[in-house]
Amino acid sequence: MPRNTSINSVLIIGSGPIVIGQACEFDYSGSQAALSLKEEGISVSIINSNPATIMTDNVVADHVYLLPLTCESIEQILQERQIDAVLPTMGGQTALNLCIEASNRGIWDKYNVKVIGVDVAAIEKTENREEFRQLMIDIGVGVATSKIANSFLEGKEAAQIIGFPLVIRPSYTLAGTGGGFVHKKEDFDAALNRGLHASPTHEVLVEQAVLGWKEFELELLRDTNDNVIIICTIENFDPMGIHTGDSITVAPGMTLSDKCYQDMRNQAIKMMRSIGNFAGGCNVQFSVNPENEEIIAIEINPRVSRSSALASKATGYPIAKIAAKLAIGYNLDELQNQITKTTSAYFEPTLDYVIVKVPRFNFDKFKGANKELGLQMKAVGEVMAIGRTFIEALQKAAQSLETGRAGLGADGRQSRNLEEIMYSLEHPSADRLFHIKDAFELGVPLESIRKATLIDKWFLVQIQELVQLEGELRRYQLNNIPRDFFMTLKQKGYSDYQISWLLGNVTEDEVYDRRKELGISRVYKMVDTCAAEFPAHTPYYYSTFEDENESIVSDRKKIIVLGSGPNRIGQGIEFDYSCVHGLLAAKECGYEAIMVNCNPETVSTDFNMADKLYFEPVFWEHVREIIELEKPEGVIVQLGGQTALKMAERLEALGVKIIGTSFENMDLAEDRGRFSDLLKELEIPYPKYGVATNAEEALKVANEVGYPVLVRPSYVLGGQGMSIVINDEDLEKAVVNLLKSLPGNQILIDHFLDRAEEAESDSICDGEDVHIIGMMEHIEPAGIHSGDSSAVLPPFSLSEGVQQKMEEYSIKLAKALNVRGLLNIQFAIKDENVYVIEANPRASRTVPFIAKAYDVPYINIATKVMLGENKLKDFSIVRKLEGYAIKEPVFSFSKFPEVDKQLGPEMKSTGEAIRFIKDLNDPHFRELYSQKSMFLNAQ
Questions:
Q1: What count of other Cβ atoms lies within 10 Å of the Cβ of residue 68?
Q2: What is the arithmetic mean of pLDDT over 31-54?
Q3: Which of 18, 192, 285, 387 has a 20 to 30 Å separation from 77 between CA atoms?
Q4: What is the per-residue pLDDT across 99-141, written as a single tens digit (0 to 9) for each?
Q5: 525-539 tens-digit pLDDT
Q6: Phi (first) and psi of residue 827, to 5 degrees
Q7: How far is CA 142 from the centre of its chain?
Q8: Where does residue 74 rank: exposed (0-12), middle (13-18), buried (19+ CB within 10 A)?
Q9: What is the pLDDT of residue 719?
Q10: Positive or negative CA dihedral for 863, 868, 872, 876?
């Protein structure tokens, strides 16, 4: 049937700030859904409190409400706008929970608003553990033995009946919060209490633990005619017992028999049809007994999920876009396949490649955290890689992680401690994948590894074969490796760096040159959803080593934008926001905009965002070959955070033009010692400092500049490794630890300005003029990382003289660094004196916040300036902020209850929210400010 013409305006509920378990995948889904509805002439309003997302840009929606995700905010919007329907399935668990609360309060009925994409009864059925269990039994779908408990006593009785080991699953929580396995009776009481308190309804499911079973996910879409299609089947590399967000996952399923798959498929369709009469998407999770392929249902989520983003990028099928159209009444066969443009959306994608997702962890930010993985998600991001085989994709994923690995081992980072390795295999953590390879290298038998990990033998055999290949490679020298064997190594995902390391006496560049001599180069294949059965029009590519190249190079002038890789603390969604605006600006200036990134959660990796998307690791070898193929006018590194910036030196050496600020000037700002020398030359105040390369030099510097001192390495993001120390003993420990984790790095020792205030400025420079985007005052004092500080725009208590100095120093530095584009500067203010702490000539996490607060597309303007297409005087910039905007950090400490939550110079927040206040008498502001006042006035 055609779309429901009674729906002319839709409210989409976002997911709020980034937290562990709910990240930027909902920026992708919300943005795609909003644009999909706008195509239909529907007015779209969005509520979301996250300023760092594309979703909260006016380019996406007609009306954006940067408000707290509460029923009061919902009612405010409904009073201001005539809203016909609400779509709550694009904002994760946060949006669903808010939808339920608003329904229970009668808000939707009061304002005559339809809930589309799901119905409230379906949410209740899927989130209420007992209702879900009973429904599965009623429709003949297997479930684990379990009992519901609403009290401590009921939980104890359930455990006695089911027996150990068992699982505790709280109702209505996100990413497994409060849940976990209980192996022993003596651990049960504490785990039960934790689960009951985590559930907003004080309800848990006590369930039989199916440890070691396989885990699978299916992504489904359903229309109003009750047609259901399976978009993607995802298999977990890790067995049951590890949250899917922390698991390595693979698509399509590698170890499923056809009989088991068909059975699982039928059950998934039956489950989706049983939870309510609605049109949209859902995610179903199953567990399969590896002995007899018995299937049990784990859960069903009637919304787009983290896996939906992965499935969408894996198949090229725009799940959120189609789900939004289904929600307003269209049927699948009435919609166009976005890839072929000639067939309908009523089809199931076919993959002729393999995708592998590997999670990214940040345990280094949570010192003392329990690193063992379980039912509570702990990953802060993820990467996806595409290859012709599982092992090629797995090695590419390892190269994408931004952890210093050049692939799966063979890079000098291997462990040789057998005891440590075997412990890791039995107690999974972030390094288990690499330790499996290490175990094979040490000669541990495959069956021993399988028993320790319970990972399917098929996957282990793939990794074991790498060890055999490496043994064979060591028989050769670079100049006599047979071409066929060299090609095999590349098809197995080996990077040139790994091959150079294995050979032992050659460089990465020498390996690169040798394979080029042999005619071994990457070719690029199109992601087309239909295994080339129909012609495709998707400019979406991945690399492999074969003969035919499907990426046709145009004769247009091109710009490549390097993305930010996986989300992690210190480098998050704000850089993807910047990259997307960079792409849009480049296209507006007439360039062919090319994106390189490997993060499946992001808007930048939507196949229709760039003119051409290379879903590839932001890893030197891959970037180099894309540049050699496309021959761009230049590369933008200023928008992708540290991931892109660290490529600048090698791009410069290769003769590739860096768009915007030059490498030399970016390096000058990053090199803390040289930068301080520049400040001295410009007569800009800065804290006394010195540079050290070892602990002995550091002690000498610290005693010269005076304690307390701030210890930090050069070339880092998110305050990595920073600490404030007050004596020689602590300084020695800090320097030794830094040099252990960052060998060869310079250590900067600054005198720390105790009880100083902190502020920031962001600006754009075109080489002649400097425009101050915004100046912010931090609520927390200096010493707490800017990403963990609440910041107020514009400053609320800084004197006019201080603000004039900040502006003066910003302009001086922008011109001295010859900035073309963006510049962020951080200041410390003490006794009306303004000191410069650091300058970053690149996109910062604060620019999206300022852009949303002032309603000005600053990244778009900065990109056009970087490209040399415009000068600042070409833009008429009008700011619209009345009152103040506050940027408030959000933390995920609930995932790590055992860690020290005290804030310091190393960033720990996972996301941020924006809040607008009319004046400084706002109660929320007064509460935040009172904490600063107490600290600054302390004796």
A1: 14
A2: 95
A3: 18
A4: 999 999 999 999 999 999 998 888 888 878 788 889 999 999 9
A5: 999 877 667 676 778
A6: -120, 150
A7: 34
A8: buried
A9: 56
A10: negative
Return d(Cα 32, Cα 603) in angstroms, integer.
8
Amino acid at 918: K
Q: Which two tokens stand for residue 813?
A: 């530095």
Q: Give the distance from CA 663 to its chain's centroid.
A: 26
Name the more confident of 762 and 150: 762
3-class SS of residue 670: helix
Rounded Cα–Cα distance for residues 224 and 171 (Å): 29
Token pair listed for 504: 């032992």
Rg (Cα) of the chain, in Å, rounded? 27
**Residue 323, CA distances (Å) to 43, 282, 604 in order:** 17, 9, 20
Amino acid at residue number 214? K
Counted residue by residue, the chain has a size of 939
What b/e readout covers 297-335, taking b as 16+ CB neighbours within 10 angstroms? bbbbbbbbbbbbbbbbbbbbbbbbbbbbbbbbbbbbebb
Predicted local confidence at residue 939, as pLDDT:
28
Please check the confidence at residue 167 and state whether its pLDDT lies above 50. Answer: yes
Cis amide bond preceding 535, omega within 30? no
Return the sign of the alpha-carbon dihedral for residues 339, 344, 349, 350: negative
CA distances to 32, 143, 680, 774, 893 from 398, rounded to whole Å, are 28, 35, 42, 38, 27
Half-sphere exposure of 46 (CA within 13 A, CB side): 33
For the residues of 131-152, what is the DSSP string, one character each?
Answer: HHHHHHHHHT-----EEEESSH
Do the Cβ atoms of 229 and 346 come closer than 8 Å? yes
Per-residue pLDDT of 797-848, as tens digits, reads 999 999 999 999 999 999 999 999 999 999 999 999 999 999 999 999 999 9
DSSP 8-state code for residue 207: E
| Nearest partner of 762 among 681, 680, 636, 849, judged by Cα | 849
Which tokens is 885 given? Answer: 């905007």
pTM score of the predicted model: 0.93
pLDDT (mean) for 717-724: 69
Measured distance CA(776)–CA(794) in Å, rounded? 5
> pLDDT tens, 486-500?
999 999 999 999 999
Closest CA to 303 of 45, 119, 142, 178: 119
Q: Report whether 602 contacts 577 (CB < 8 A).
A: no
Question: DSSP secondary-structure letter at 171?
Answer: T
**Intra-chain end-to-end CA distance of the chain, in Å:** 72
**Cβ-proximal residues to 514 (8 Å cutoff; 6+ apart), any chain:** 478, 479, 481, 486
**Is 864 in contact with 820 (CB distance < 8 Å)?**
no
Q: What are φ and ψ of residue 667, in 5° steps? A: -65, -35
Q: Which residues pair with 281 in a beta bridge?
A: 221
Q: Smallest Cα–Cα separation from 891: which of 910, 917, 864?
A: 910
Going by pLDDT thresholds of 50, 70 and 90, the confidence category of residue 938 is very low
The three-state secondary structure class of 562 is strand
* Cβ–Cβ under 8 Å, residues 525 and 393: no
